[in-house]
Amino acid sequence: MTPPELRDLISDALALWQVPGKVRVVEGRVALAAPDGTPLSVHAAEPADRPIRWWLERPGQRRPCTSVLGLLRGLRNAVGAGEGEARRARVALPEA
Amino acid sequence: MSPIAAPEGRLPVCVVTGFLGAGKTTLLKRVLRDPRFADSAVIVNEFGEVPLDHDLIAASEDMLISVSTGCLCCVVRSDLTETLLDLARRRAAAEVPAYARVVIETSGLADPAPILHALMADERVAAGHRLQSVATLVDAATGAAVLERHPEAQRQVMLADRLLLTKTDLAPVPATLETALAALNPAAPRRVAAHGEVDPEWLFAPGSLPAFLEANARHTEGVASIVLEREAPIPALALTLWLQGLVEHCGPRLLRLKGLVALAEAPEKPVALHAVQHLLHPLEWLDAWPGTDRHSRIVLIGEGIPRHLPARLLAAIEAEVRDS
Question: Which chain B residues touch A if contact means CB-CB below 8 Å?
Answer without folding.
Answer: 236-237, 239-241, 243-245, 247-251, 253, 263, 265-266, 269, 271, 278, 280, 283, 285, 304-306, 308-309, 312-313, 315-317, 319-320
